[in-house]
Write a structure and sequence with these properties.
The structure is a homodimer. The first copy, chain A, is of the alpha+beta class. In chain A, 31% of the residues lie in helices and 22% in strands. The two termini of chain A are 29 Å apart. In chain A, helix 1 packs across helix 2, helix 2 packs parallel to helix 3 and helix 5 packs across helix 6. Chain A folds into two domains: 264 residues, L-amino peptidase D-ALA esterase/amidase; 116 residues, Ubiquitin-like (UB roll) (Roll), CATH 3.10.20.340. In chain A, the strands form three sheets. A six-stranded mixed β-sheet of chain A has the order 13-12-11-14-10-15. In chain A, strands 3-9-8-7-6 form a five-stranded mixed β-sheet, sandwiched between helices. In chain A, strand 11 and strand 12 form a beta hairpin. Chains A, B: Its EC number is 2.3.1.35, 2.3.1.1. Chains A, B: It is found in: Cytoplasm.
Chain lengths: 392, 392
């Protein structure tokens, strides 16, 4: 059901010909109201793609009536022409929606249309295919179109990713794409969340930032940060229900958490999903820093691939951080076995069962009470192949 | 010739049985004087192996009479017993050298013997093999033993690494090991440099720090920082020549630079050596930060492996740093072709010839006049295999 599970939204996904292989590559999500509140978070990469610059700008007013997304090209590092193309896409969406009578409660303007792109960096989009595609997507808009939209935003994703949470009379749904270049700030992804809860953009913004901080921002598949990350949350108010903040924030966090897990499970070439849990840190910041250092250690990621509980590489990664800890008080458990105690040899490493896809590493800093969990993957020959055999 | 190219040094390399495969695993370098000045730099990893803690301590006096090195075990994360083993090794070396009459200009004491270890983290050394090995190494000490010593410190190295620079009446020679876990601060390695120049430990320390800062510290094969890095410089004074500081520092830098290059060329699984040159940075620190970010980008390293001049991944890596730059003023050249100009598409990427082992990436930040060069490698399926198929 994806983004159309919440009332008040229609969506479509089509093949516009942006991808040379003919796969679906253009998605459209329209908020039919009555409300058009929206919030978004974007990549912290300082090299931002044209659609990110555009969408950050149009979100200033806290209102979006539509989101258009394309795969098959990131429109990043494409200069002034790239930005013009993004602008032209938003104009085309507004015009086409108005012409088709999808004018909801006041019509569409380019300044209320967010644009998201994903694919190869440094290549201009084929506008001669993209713009006619917008008309075809508008013609196929449907309250059941969420699934097709989720499929159209895939790049190296092997599966499309959707999630729906329904509460007392209202719903939060969403779709995500992402399989590589996954690293904090945000993980590389495009995500559109929708809700029919009746909330203003200030509440949406607060709930979305709180959710992404502990979900997408803690997915770190390969340490590589994208130029195009975008997470949008749109509210239609169509349920007529205004939930309390905590209840709503919890639902948004649940959807983000689930979609984040789906990203990790589909990470390029991965054979293991690794949950790095840092406990007893002096601060949450320390816990996150240590978790990321472990999650980005190529040697450890190779060892996990080989089902080798190589805790020495965990300690080596912890040692590169500035977090508060004493080397001779560090403890590490892998899949429940405390293989390292007090910075030295602990329980027998042969007791560690590494046969399953999920691997759980606990790093105990013995320096406080804070905790954080980072999700990552193993590093495999398939990852190398997928990222060296062709441009992506 | 390695560490015995400089007058006043003897060395040996033997198989003590620390490695299960029977390969050489114990090296000894002895300074026969008349001077016994020494300096050293060590890993910046906060989790330091026992031999690093020991050697830092004994170097406090600026004097070393011998260095004993073992491969086959890092003696890292081994607790109090590991430190006792390091201490016992130094005691054994001093005792055995004195017994054998290698007492040079005042005999040997444990407090003047540095210890270096490399191999798997978290395993105690087989002292029942190592200590008898010390006696056999002492018995084989020779002014021609440098080559054997260099061979005995190999771990996953496919070749042993040595370098000699001779100036007007004096010499700097050295040996190095290192093939993985190569990252700044220092690159993972054991290095022993020797000179017969007549210099005190203060001058040695200054020249060594200046050299490692721009050589070993800028080798970043896989972003992984070791617990055991050690670079030692010993001076015998046996040439009777006291060169000027600049001349001496240049010779030490030349040897470090050459050994650093050898480490990169032998990096685990690598098929490409990548020179990342950052130019027109606002500060040297910015240049180093950007260079490291590029050098550690797994996606770029995979692309280079696939001979794909994927400059988008270079910009994406630059964008994660806090260095001074404007995204629309960045320029990137790969093997001489400016594939990115002003943050956007530049010259035709098909012009880039990627057939050769060396790849040269220039990142122009257009923000100042400072520059730095970081060396790294591509990321390959062979690297994954080598680091997942068995513990290392």
């Amino acid at each position: 059901m994806s983004v159309t599970a919440a009332k008040g939204f229609t969506a479509a996904g089509i093949a516009a010909g942006i991808k040379e292989n003919g796969n679906p590559d253009l998605a459209l999500v329209v908020n039919d109201g009555p409300r058009r509140a929206a919030a978004g978070v974007f990549t912290s990469n300082r090299v931002k793609a044209a659609p990110v610059l555009w969408s950050e700008q149009v979100l200033g007013g806290g209102e979006l009536t539509a989101v258009v997304l394309n795969s098959g090209g990131a429109n990043a590092c494409t200069g002034p022409k790239g930005f013009q193309d993004t602008h032209a896409t938003a104009e085309k969406v507004a015009e086409s929606l108005n012409t088709a009578g999808h004018d909801g409660t006041g019509g569409h303007a380019p300044g209320h249309v967010a644009v998201c792109s994903t694919g190869l960096i440094g290549v201009l989009l084929p506008m001669d295919k993209l713009l006619p595609g917008v008309d075809r997507a508008v013609a196929q808009l449907s309250p059941h179109g969420g699934e097709k939209a989720a499929i159209a935003i895939k790049t190296t994703d092997t599966v499309h990713k959707t999630c729906v949470v329904t509460r007392d009379g209202w719903t939060v749904g969403g779709m995500a794409k992402g399989a590589g270049m996954l690293a904090p700030g945000l993980a590389t992804m495009l995500v559109v969340l929708t809700t029919d809860a009746d909330l203003d953009s200030g509440v949406l913004d607060r709930a979305l930032r709180a959710a992404t901080r502990v979900t997408f921002d803690r997915v770190d598949s390969d340490g590589c940060m994208s130029t195009n990350d975008t997470v949008l949350l749109l509210a239609s108010g169509a349920s007529g229900v205004t939930p309390g903040y905590e209840e709503f924030a919890e639902a948004v966090r649940a959807v983000c958490d689930d979609l984040g897990q789906q990203l990790i499970r589909d990470a390029e070439g991965a054979s293991k999903d690794i949950r790095v849990e840092v406990v007893n840190a002096a601060s949450e910041q320390d816990a996150v820093q240590v978790g990321r250092s472990i999650a980005r250690n190529n040697l450890l990621k190779c060892a996990i691939h080989g089902e080798d509980p190589n805790w020495g590489r965990v300690l080596s990664a912890i040692g590169t951080t500035g977090a508060a800890f004493e080397p001779d008080q560090l403890n590490v458990a892998i899949n429940g076995v405390w293989v390292c105690k007090n910075g030295s040899v602990g329980e027998d490493r042969d007791l560690v069962d590494m046969r399953y896809r999920e691997v759980h590493i606990v790093a105990d800093l013995a320096a406080g009470t804070e905790t954080a969990t980072i999700w990552t993957n193993d590093l495999t020959a398939d990852y190398v192949h997928e990222n060296s055999a062709y441009s992506s």
